[in-house]
Amino acid sequence: MVRLSAVQRREMILVAAARAFSRGGYAGTSTDLVALEAGVSQPYVVRMFGSKADLFQEVFDRAARTLLNAFDEVLADPGQSASPRVWSRLSAVYDTMVGDREVLVVLLQGFSAAAGHHQIAAAARRFVASLYALLVERTGCEPERAREFIARGMLLNALLAMNAPGHVADDPALAALADCALGSCDFEDSDDTSPESGGPAGRNRSDLGIP
Predict the structure, then answer these.
(1) What pTM, to 2 d.p., does this model score?
(2) Rounded distance, CA 145 to CA 156, Å?
(3) How far apart are CA 154 and CA 110, in angstroms?
């Protein structure tokens, strides 16, 4: 059996913790559950990360970096960043994350836990501020547009956390909202709907869990 390095073991536990926290949230997930998910002992988790709050903050920061790095790649070319169509490409990042819901749901769990935990609240504020600064500084957009884009991401987080795509048959209004947020009402310019743009004409709604 290959012996993992300390760095590899730490990453393994963070991956397992992300799965556990995305399912149970901060309050509903103990270090015992994280240890069980990771296949290690609970004292080992505590020894490596300290408190549950410390562990969750690392999981949250890791999810935040994943999303910010993905946006940063889209905005790396200054010429492309100034293009109106950049918002379609940024929206496509969210669509990709829908397939790996843990990232978005962990972020939502962090926002929810922030109300009662100063440490987690500080991490959530840093992420939101970093995202806003990245959008405004790289695209040169007005604050309102950055706000709308971030708000769409928050809605996606909430819909995924409640598993709305899996229950669209329960309520026509829920189906319409899920379709708009996850499917046909992409955040983009109205004239940018070609398959190449990643707009509605090029979207496969079934890939997003929409029947």
Answers:
(1) 0.82
(2) 17
(3) 12
